[in-house]
Design brief:
Layout (H helix, E strand, L loop, with lengths): L6 H24 L18 H18 L10 H31 L4 H8 L13 H17 L7 H15 L5 H6 L4 H16 L11 H19 L6 H20 L6 H11 L1 H22 L5 H48 L1
Helix pairs in contact: 1-2, 1-9, 1-10, 1-11, 1-12, 1-13, 2-5, 2-8, 2-10, 3-5, 3-12, 5-6, 6-8, 8-10, 9-10, 12-13
Length: about 350
């Protein structure tokens, strides 16, 4: 298995994004100004656990694309940040700017400070749209990882210190907002993903087969994760419960990493959702915010289950369209530019 063939991880990315959409669709339907109805005693809100799974996946992916089997860097710090910027920031900017335009045109609301903080994923303060809060922690993780794992080896304990910082903050007095953001509970989830990535780099060639399509087992595992989050009353800022969620997610990641995923229509759909997962996460609030209000005005008596399913379907279809028509062509151009840039660099060296 090569780094570009970890199909199960793509499956999990798509399922995690879908779980977040389920959470937010159910929350939209329950909003008093829309339909005001909660279903399954709020169980669907536990789709937020998809974010926890995302954090572990991020730790895993960043590790396996940045290090070799001996855990040595495969790229320089500048290249690492350049790749992360091109992969993450343009679509994030588009999501923030389009959400700001929709909010202003639809409601006449515009919180310039919150939108500006979202544009740079500022580590403290409120953000609009709210889901950008996860990217602020992604960028903190990227910074710590690059300094500790791509720099001198003696800096590697910095990553360990960052991962245990949330536990240390529990022992001291109330910390400033910036320190609490840097030492957020989700650090342990990134750390768990890094550990799985380091393990995989040493044992990347093993895999196992299931007598059935593994995608359905991963989907069941996502539902089980939601149930576990409901059981423990998980909140992202609670360190001990985040540790438990990370422990629950770890075998799910290992399943995705090592299970053999056969080809077929399930694989095609699973890979499509996985490839589109970032856009789904970024842009589904746009669709929910617009469509829930219109739906409530035009058909206020619609059964709430129909509303929730419809909102999920509309969000996924719209985000897939953005992925196929905007993100995918943009990433294609970025990759071609990177190849040309590397070729230009190699040219003088070869000539010399």
């Amino acid at each position: 298995m090569t780094r570009g063939e970890i199909v199960g991880i793509q499956y999990l990315r798509g399922l995690a994004a879908l779980a977040v959409v389920v959470d937010h669709a159910a929350a939209s339907a329950a909003t008093p100004k829309y339909f005001g109805q909660t279903v399954l005693d709020g169980f669907l809100y536990r789709g937020a656990a998809g974010v926890d799974l995302f954090f572990l996946i991020s730790g895993f992916i960043i590790t396996v694309v940045s290090l070799d089997r001996d855990w040595k860097p495969t790229m320089k710090v500048g290249d690492f940040f350049g790749r992360r910027f091109l992969r993450i920031v343009p679509m994030m900017w588009l999501a923030v700017l389009s959400y700001a335009a929709l909010r202003y045109l639809g409601r006449g609301e515009f919180d310039g400070g919150a939108f500006l903080r979202a544009m740079v994923a500022w580590p403290v303060g409120t953000l609009e749209p709210l889901n950008i809060w996860t990217l602020r922690h992604e960028f903190i993780f990227y910074t710590v990882f690059a300094i500790s794992m791509l720099g001198p080896r003696w800096l590697r304990p910095l990553l360990v210190a960052w991962c245990v910082l949330p536990l240390l903050l529990l022992l001291g007095p109330q910390a400033p907002a910036l320190v609490k953001s840097i030492g957020h509970a989700v650090n342990v989830e990134f750390g768990a993903g890094v550990l799985i990535g380091l393990f995989w780099l040493k044992r990347p060639d093993i895999s196992f087969r299931l007598p059935f399509e593994p995608y359905w087992l991963m989907a069941l595992a996502m539902v089980a994760l939601m149930g576990f989050a409901a059981l423990i009353g998980h909140e992202f800022h609670l360190v001990t419960k985040t540790l438990l969620i990370a422990a629950f997610c770890a075998p799910i990641i290992l399943l995705g990493v090592y299970v053999h995923c056969p080809r077929g229509w399930v694989a095609r759909v699973g890979l499509l959702l996985g490839n589109a997962s970032y856009v789904v996460y970024l842009f589904h609030p746009h669709v929910l915010s617009a469509s829930a209000g219109v739906w409530a005005r035009l058909a206020p008596g619609t059964p709430v289950w129909v509303v929730i399913f419809g909102l999920i379907l509309l969000s996924m279809l719209a985000c897939l369209a953005v992925h196929l028509m905007v993100e995918k062509p943009l990433l294609g151009r970025v990759r071609r530019w990177q190849v040309a840039r590397r070729s230009a660099r190699a040219g003088p060296e070869t000539a010399g």
